[in-house]
Specification:
eight-stranded mixed sheet; Rossmann fold; binds S-adenosylmethionine; 40% helix; alpha/beta; 8 strands; 20% strand; 260 residues; 10 helices; S-adenosylmethionine-dependent methyltransferase activity; disordered N terminus
Amino acid sequence: MTETRGAAVAAQPGNKSAARGSGRVRTAVVWDVVRAALTAVAGGRAVDVIDAGGGTGGFAVPLAELGHRVTVVDSSPDALAALERRAAEAGVTVRAVQGDAAELPDLLGSGSADLVLCHNVLEYVDDPERTMAALASTVRPGGSISVLAAGRLAVALHRAIAGHFDDARRVLSDPAGRWGDRDPTPRRFTCASLTDLATAAGLRPGEVHGVRIFADLVPSGLAESDREATDALVALELAAATHPALRDLATQLHLLAHRA
Ligand SMILES: C[S@@+](CC[C@H](N)C(=O)[O-])C[C@H]1O[C@@H](n2cnc3c(N)ncnc32)[C@H](O)[C@@H]1O
């Protein structure tokens, strides 16, 4: 276990890391939901946050900047080393623990966090059911779990737009939503499969938000041509995130689930 320490943090700084150009387009919907979850579970207090598979701290460091006590559990020592550098540069404290997300209760204790994040990880773990159960048991009663995972329909669109029509067709029939043997992503989700996973772990699933519905379809030059275009695309993503047809087409699906 390693721990990085920095200067004391302000209670409510602006969300600097989430506010920059293309990063903002890609993460605006997720931050919107995470901020609302924090308001619900924290109500302005500093709370315990665990980021399972938190990698280099793209979410963990801004959350520490907001004043929360953040622990990242990740299987990769290299990612944790990069997290330590990022936290030090930001002048915040983030605890870094090497381990498997499926072992969270053994690593950190059951009921040890108010908010547990698991972003872009369920696609890669050995056993998504077991990992979701571990997330559920690590959050305190009344707390929430933020799960972000790859959406399967989006990859069919992206492969077709790139001219890989056979790959796009395979995505539609493959049980894991993969486009072929060389697809680097082991599995993708639908709104229903992600929600079912949370329900099976004893959680109460909230609404699924679609993330990057349009952002990955428009040329980046258009999306980032100027501040006005970026703002308009962010507004479009926020407006479409819960649209019942459009959210299924999102590159990522974001589920906030609750422990009663
Ligand atoms: C695509 S990155 C996502 C990083 C971060 N959550 C984000 O959204 O920016 C996936 C991360 O999950 C980690 N990872 C993969 N399998 C894991 C597991 N079973 N337990 C813990 N971490 C895992 C990887 O090392 C990597 O840092």
